[in-house]
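Continued from yesterday's entry.
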Amino acid sequence: MQQGSGFLTPRQRRLAWLGFLLAAVQAPVSARFSSDDSWLFSLCVALMVATVIIADDASRRRPADATSAD
């Protein structure tokens, strides 16, 4: 049984991880040094990128011969 391929290329996957890490680090730094709540935007971006990475992982772990439920 072969594993399915994800929708992200390996390069896009590395960039997504880099974007996630940068946004996740930037949020608490921004919260510490900023008086407003703009750090929440960085947190939301990090969560959206994490969702894409998790969806790609799920797509990669699904068997290649599996069909969609639709």
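--- second protein ---
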Amino acid sequence: MKALDVDQTIMARRREIVAALRAIIPGEAVIDAEIGRRPYESDGFTAYANLPLVVVLPSTTAELQAVLRYCYANAIKVVPRGAGTSLSGGALPLQDGVLISMMKFNKIKEIDFENRCAVVEPGVTNAAISRAVDHRGFYYAPDPSSQIACSIGGNVAENSGGVHCLKYGLTTNNVLGVEMALMDGEIVRLGGAFLDAEGYDFLSLVVGSEGMLGVVTEVTVRLLRKPESARALMIAFDSSEAGGACVADVIAAGIIPGGMEMMDRPAIHAAEDFVHAGYPRDAEAMLIVELDGPPVEVNHLVGLVEAIALKRGATQCRISNSEAERLAFWAGRKAAFPAVGRLSPDYLCMDGTIPRKQLPRVLAGIAELSEKHKLRVANVFHAGDGNLHPLILYDANKPGELQAAEDFGSDILRLCVEVGGVLTGEHGVGVEKRDLMPVMFNEIDLDQQIGIKCAFDEKMLLNPGKMFPTLHRCAEMGRMHVHQGQLPFPELPRF
């Protein structure tokens, strides 16, 4: 990965910048000492780390605005950060940039059960919203595996999903509005506690923008009624290809499960050793399929899914008969990432998305790539919507293994694009997939996207070095092309 050039002028002004920030936010909210900055040197994508110039923890919108205005006036780069659980390096700090942690913005400001929404600050954790509304039978649908720790602001930045996103959508489908600060400190509101807004849909543009357009200060989320009932099936197969084919058959039958997850043999064993959920150790692949809704409907759909699985050669099919058993089925899947960490000193968690019908082909391709790169892989993914999470196992202490793991991951993502998929489903591009963007987008596509960034951040100070392999200056985006001495549209008058 090519690193950004460090602005030595900014580095030379470090003491001055720290002093100015302390004048804006007094006390311990400006972290200057190296030992205090170390916890912020990377996010969940730990293969890369940078020590930030300084860390700032504003606790009010006014403080955030003042910090942004100072950085804007002095051309200082800024990296917004939530809980730091991002798996693509989206919150990787810059040596010559201010890292702004939003975790002091941690209040649930309003819960409106009548309109089925809640207004929360970006530092509120994902799971905290569901806990706050559970007593009235509501919940917040997106549920990333890191939901006990990840922040709503980070979810907005990366358009996070989770095991139930197949039926209930990702963050973009469950956020009604945001308030955010632009790089110059201006506050803008997009959407709100209503179903739709007039004009351009800027809200959908901001969700998934990876902190490159503004810093979110408030989020209005959609609340859903908890389903009347839910049952889960744990289905074992003697091959990943058979499991993938079963996924395609279930969706083709018009059944949309609340969740549909798949794990291969290495992941099954790791999760079972970690959680003891009763997973089938002799299976090569396992599906967890959850159906929710009215009990009569759920029982009917459970029977249909069981029949489809058996037709596809399922070797075992267990159906939950209690809430405790259903939660036990999910416990291993929710803990799969830390569980796989017991198999290897390090791993890369990839995030590509493919058409469901391509699951058997891609899983076979990943197995071939594992042989090619001589690295093990454990597959854990959201099978229902084709969002793959291959976990590439490596040891960073062995020379060349990190590079081999990155090459392996790049090949997986190229394969995803080749079969009609995309580079990411919910983790974002960050620095991890940045240099692969030309695999999916041509130069015109990328210029259009950079043009949008210029409209929000003309100085290119917000989270630079992420998403785009080459970030043109905004002035360059408006350049006029001269071909063989001729300007475009020579017949038009020019002034």
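The chain has four domains: 8-101, 108-225, 229-338, 344-435. The chain has a mean pLDDT of 93. Will compare against the first tomorrow.
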